[in-house]
Amino acid sequence: MKVLITGGHGFLGEILSRQLSIGHNVLSLGSSHGDLRTHGALDKYLNEFKPDVVVALAARLGGIGDNINHPSEYFLDNLQIGVNTLNSFKNYSLSLNKNARIILIGTVCSYPKSPPLPFKELDFWNGYPEETNGPYGIAKKAVSEYSFCLSRQFGVKCVNLLLTNLYGPKDDFRPETSHVIPALIRKVHHAKLNDLTSIDVWGRGDTSRDFLYVHDASQVIKHFVEKYFGPNNYFNIGTGVEITLENLVSVICSKMEFNGAIKWNNKRPSGQPRRVLDNSRLRTEFDINFTSFDDGLAATISYYIDNQNEIHAQGPKFGV
Q1: Residue 315: which pLDDT band, with cuts at 50, 70 and 90?
Q2: Which of 84, 27, 19, 35 is closest to 54 using CA atoms?
Q3: Which of the chain's ends, N or C, has fewer CB atoms near its CB within 10 Å?
């Protein structure tokens, strides 16, 4: 098949592009190919490449701190990227390839703040997201609803995948935008290099997350590229395993041989109180053996240690 990936040069996009390139013709688009916040930026690539499947990965992404500091950008950028991508795809599929499909990559951040655990797809609309990433989560949720509108009105073929927290080698380790695992790895490494006796950790130790190794996420998306599940569908993409922040910090410190004290900064936000996805619907469609958290974390730490000079030379991340 011909597969076009937006956000194809990012953390998940690079891996997905490599995996799909084995057996498929892949066009991987990054920021150098145009700004998807601009109407029609995707048109020429769709019309010239004529993909069978589009994977919409492009998004503005970042951790809690960046979401708090730039809520309007997280809302507007993700809304514009999603709506423009869907509009371009609708026009393409209606005029050139009525059998083309689009896979929207959504987020666990769109779920309500405290739904019953584990999160089920049926609870997706039953409340407001956790406040620190509400603008981002609502924008992505609105885009998913727009995809269903296009499906009902125009027959656009779309499926929505709701990804949990990703981690792995080549994650974003920059302090301005990193998520919890790369942020903690960098913090512990800094403490060791500078002989610090403690590290400061945001929030509460009983906060929990469902962490998904980035290569596993790519394998799941590849499966959806190769098999059509029909329109108007949500699928949770997560391990179904809940890991507390306290346990995460303990494991990272142990693997990095840091014996200092952990100082919990409860004045700083920790985001959604608890988070774990019900992946039973995914498992009925796809038999996947998820990478163990121990192995995935070890690979992520090794990547950071081996590439720390290059990572530290990166400037702050701005824009999409």
Answers
A1: low
A2: 27
A3: N
